[in-house]
Amino acid sequence: MMAVEQIPKKDWYSILGADPSANVSDLKQKYQKLILMYHPDKQSTDVPAGTVEKCIQKFIEIDQAWKILGNEETKKEYDLQRHEDDLRNMGPVDAQIYLEEMSWNEDDHSFSLSCRCGGKYSVSKDEAEEVNLISCDTCSLIVEVLHYN
User: Fold this and answer.
1) Which SUPFAM superfamilies match (predicted)?
2) What is the residue range of 118's domain?
């Protein structure tokens, strides 16, 4: 598994010129178009050295973006990290709770907790292992999920 948090914070979607809701097939098309455009072998020999360097850097960035977004597992991990970063930017954490304090819902295999506004915080079993912040489905409150060690 690739550790997304170790990679410098870049918007891999914007590097490919794609929307975060794009499917892998659309991402692949954008990747292929860009990788051909910036491939070092496709660059003219009469351009300044600085321009060639920029194209090579762009080529490397495009390739890195595809390595993350072209793989379902790393894409999911990256998307979860982006979502968590967005939540951190929304505002302060309202409370810290342990996952074990949340109610288990067997029907949809998720954990949930009532919010003071009447809404609820919910997270799937799979996401619970990777996500630390959960937003209420009704208001802007955020809770941090802790795990017993």
Assistant:
1) Chaperone J-domain, CSL zinc finger
2) 91-146
